[in-house]
TrEMBL record, chain A:
InterPro entries assigned: Tscrpt_reg_PadR_N, WH-like_DNA-bd_sf, WH_DNA-bd_sf
Transmembrane segments: none
Name under which the protein is recorded: Transcriptional regulator, PadR family
Ranges for domain Transcription regulator PadR N-terminal: 7-78
A family per Pfam: PadR
Organism field: Streptomyces wuyuanensis
From TrEMBL, chain B:
Keyword Hydrolase on entry: no
PROSITE patterns: ABC_TRANSPORTER_2 (PS50893)
Pfam families: ABC_tran (PF00005)
Domain of life: Bacteria
InterPro entries: AAA+_ATPase, ABC_transporter-like_ATP-bd, ABC_transpr_LolD-like, MacB-like_ATP-bd, P-loop_NTPase
Signal peptide feature range: none
MF term (GO), any: ATP binding
One GO cellular component term noted in the UniProt record for this chain: plasma membrane
Domain ABC transporter: 8-228
SUPFAM superfamilies listed in its UniProt record: P-loop containing nucleoside triphosphate hydrolases
Protein name: Putative ABC transport system ATP-binding protein
Taxonomy of the source species: Bacteria, Bacillati, Actinomycetota, Actinomycetes, Kitasatosporales
From TrEMBL, chain C:
Keyword Membrane carried by entry: yes
Chain ranges of the ABC3 transporter permease C-terminal domain: 202-313, 659-769
Keyword terms: Cell membrane, Membrane, Transmembrane, Transmembrane helix
Protein's membrane topology: Multi-pass membrane protein
Stretch list, region Disordered: 576-596
Transmembrane segments: 194-218, 250-272, 292-313, 334-352, 364-385, 414-435, 654-672, 710-729, 741-762
Stored InterPro entries: ABC3_permease_C, Membrane_comp_ABC_pdt
Protein name: FtsX-like permease family protein
PANTHER family: BLL1001 PROTEIN (PTHR30287:SF2), MEMBRANE COMPONENT OF PREDICTED ABC SUPERFAMILY METABOLITE UPTAKE TRANSPORTER (PTHR30287)
Organism the protein comes from: Streptomyces wuyuanensis
Amino acid sequence: MSIGHTLLGLLESGPRHGYDLKRAFDEKFGHDRPLHYGQVYSTMSRLLKNGLVEVDGIEAGGGPERKRYAITEAGVTDVARWLATPEKPEPYLQSTLFTKVVLALLTGRSAAELLDTQRSEHLRMMRVLTERKRHGDLADQLICDHALFHLEADLRWLELAAARLDTLAREVTA
Amino acid sequence: MNPAGPLLAARGLHKTYGHTKALDGAEFSIRPGEVVAVMGPSGSGKSTLLHCLAGIVTPDAGSIDYQGRELSAMNDAERSALRRGEFGFIFQFGQLVPELTCVENVALPLRLNGARRRDAERTALEWMERVEVDDLASKRPGEVSGGQGQRVAVARSLVTGPRVLFADEPTGALDSLNGERVMQLLTDAARSTDAAVVLVTHEARVAAYSDREIVVRDGRCRDMEHAL
Amino acid sequence: MSPGPRTRDLLMGVRFALSGGREGWTRTLLTGVGVGLGVALLLVTTAIPSALAARDARASARSEHTAPTAEQPGRDTLLIGEADTRFRADEVHGRLLKPEGPDAPLPPGLESFPADGEMAVSPSLDALLKSEDGALLRERLDQRITAVIGDEGLIGPGELAYYAGDDRLRQLGGKVPRVTGFDNSAEPEPLDPVLTLLILLVFVALLMPVAVFIATAVRFGGERRDRRLAALRLVGADARSVRRIAAGEAMAGSVFGLVLGAGFFLAVRQSAAGVNLFRLSVFPGDLDPAPWLAVLVALAVPAAAVAVTLFALRGVVIEPLGVVRTARPARRRVVWRLLPPLAGVALLYPMIGQGDEGGEFSQWQVIGGVVLLLIGITALLPWLVEAVVSRLGTGGSVAWQLAVRRLQMSSGAAARLVNGIAVAVAGAIALQMLFAGVEGSYTRNTGADPTRAAIMAMIPSGSDAAGRTEAVARQIDQAEGVTRATALTGTELATTTGDPQRTAMLTIGSCAALREVAVLPSCKDGDTFVLDGGDDPAGAEEIAKPGRKLYAGAVYGDDTAEAVRWMLPADTRRVAARPDPNGEKRSGVLATNGAAPRNLGSSGHASVYIQLDPSVPDAVEHARTAVLKADPAITPFHLQDTEQSGRFVSIRTGLLLGASCVLLLIGASLLVSQLEQLRERKKLLSALVAFGTRRSTLSVSVLWQTAVPIALGLGLAMAVGVGLGVVLLKMVAAPVAVDWTAVASMTGVGAGVVLLVAVLSLPPLLRLMRPEGLRTE
């Protein structure tokens, strides 16, 4: 999962302090693994260096956590590119996919689009697996089935998530 | 892919049922020997698209071209003849005539095309052998399992040597293993006869048997091959 | 106390019938309408006897037939002269009235006596007289209309009747009844056993199919019901309680049907007044079923509904996950199915030949035998259909293959569809045969020749025969459309008076008139002839010897006139008799008017033969008018080649009417079941059409599916019908002959109904085959 893209995405809805960013991230994505301040600081520096964010203002007292960051034009493009790029199909993708779906909603992008793109990518992999299964021995078939079922599970979750767009949108923007 | 032009192509399809827009400018094309999965959420117009492509339903607007012939310009009899001769169909269930034996069911499309009963049933039996249900020949659909019945349906859809096979959720009522078997038989048979398959499904594992997929959403199609 | 489990199950079924959503309602409505139509037909049938009794009662109440009479005019006497007439095919009941005192009895339906030249008419006659069509009749009944006869004076709302005041009654000779009241207490002629048999059979043959129909109606929507019951099993209902729930549903449907039936019946009853079938109209008030019959219907119909439901469920195991027809039902065995028809024949057989001796048939034995024979059809038909269908080849067209396979799968359902029609047709064929067979004894060949004389007007005895007859004939002769009116007077000749052993007949008339009864080489007034070759020559041979002195006229003695001495002239010639227009060859003596004995008084009987000009339209109506004008008391008889017993005709028309109603009713149920079956197969039909099946193939297949069981059903019906017909003919000792036209026509009507049903079910079938059917799942 790319923390940089996630933080960028969170900034898209408006400038935030580093502290706020950490809190928003923890609240929405970091249920079991909260971010360290250090992580936020180093990520933001990198983004700053790459010109994807800019410092919007500094609160009195100084310190990196007191800086207010805003996303730049380049940053927005970077988020969009990231969201549109399907994840490489592999088991246990959920957290990345989940983050992407939530961010897509937060930033008013279409989750359906994301779903279709991801499904296409998944199917590409699944076709390969299916073809291997066709010509493989029993062990091959079992291995392929295992992968196929997991990939299908991702897609089904994505489908369900997309179908719940409305409900989810209400929760996220609340 | 086959360099030849599309076998069946549709553009600008519109179809409204009552107040529901089932199709709203859908596009589609398929080449010979190609298996195309039609995916999308339920109620998105997948089945309507299939019905239009197969000439079962006439769209309100748009054109459907099958080998240079315009489907929407044909009358009911011509389209029926086309479906009998050039197309094959597999539905989720309820398509086998319960009173006829399995071999009679498989032979039915040939008989509808005017074949003699004996010849039709001989051909039917050959196809049943290919999908490994020839031992069910004299059973009635009510006496065979769902998977067997669906394989009988596969045999029936192929018996006339169709150019296009329309499969609407062919594994929808089957468990995984039977679903896999049916899909394998279906795609193998289609490949061997160079038939195109329009496969409506909502299951990714079933769609994985296709060469490419299109997504129907709100009555419009997204061709994922060209989207990327 | 809370209801026991049984009651609870029944009530649950009732609730399902009433609140099962749209589907439940449709089913209940279908059953209700079906049962309702059956019930209405039953109620109408049970009301017919009381309706006829009420008509009879009113007919008696106005009859002078056995009314108390008086010798002399008094305060309470009424002269009442019969003046019935006919207009076209309709009878007109007419009476001339002349009250002789203030207390003269007023016929029912009148408020006062019409004065001379006035008349009271029934509403129907009133309407007829005012219509353009009735103008001819108005010429005949030209009295001033001053009143309308009330319902209590009419036997039916459509009856044509009038009462006219007529002072001439006093002069019309002495034989006009002088009554002091009205009555007809004469015992009605008992129906002869053959007619009784016929009436019983008509009822049985009509009600049996109604019963079969009700049984079918109760099973409407059965397959959906079974699925619902399966769902109940899933939530824990046991097999017994599921059956009770089904019974409750059937009961609710049939009770609903009873209510509808009562409604239909009331509607029919209300509209009865406007209906005039076979010249028979009935007052709504007369159409009341006997209370015990109505109660019987109200109890029997729900009971039968429950019985049929439970019987239908006997071969069905309702499992929680669906309905299982007992895997492969035991092949239907023909043995026990032959029992009912054999028992029927056994009941009827002992009565063979009894009709000959005029003996009575045991009504219950007849009903039992016929019912068992007809039930035999419903027992045999499923077996027959199964046996035949399982042997049918499935070669040939796809439509045929589909139909045969379907029939093989569910031959029982197919047989059930045609049971009703088969029973109705069998009953009707048997009856038609019986009718045709006994027609000979009820239809007389009269020998009359209507081309020579269409009307014979009998002048009542009592009037001065010879002179009056000639005058009447001359008057009628003037009428439009009358070619010739010939008067013939007859009287007796004997050698002695008082108590003559033998008499001969003397026929008096003009030469032209006498030529109607004999071949006369020459004739002039004053001639006399003796007839040769008459039908009854005995008396004439002995008495009619030329030159002999005889007595003519009242040879038996009479209080009004004495016999007249008359000598048969010596130059009397022998001539050959020829049939008179009545078809009778007279015997005895012919005398031209100039040679006839004088002063015969009122002892003669005279008739005027009226020959009509067929080219004049309504000649017969003009002639009737002329007759009535000449003398209202003359009754014109219409000479016909054949004549049927009136009652026989009405039974036959009743049968035809009833059979058509029943067949239509059954056709309706057939249609409903057919549509139901098609709906069940909506998905399959759409799938078949999707892969290119021609709609015509499926339509033809449905036709075959109906036609095959119908052909078998009608075949069996023909066999049983002809068999029953033969037994019945033997019972009445009539010559056994198969009336093939009747067989063909009844079978044809049955087949026509089926064809109609098939045609009517085509549009819904085409609708069901639309691809939308694929979308529903």
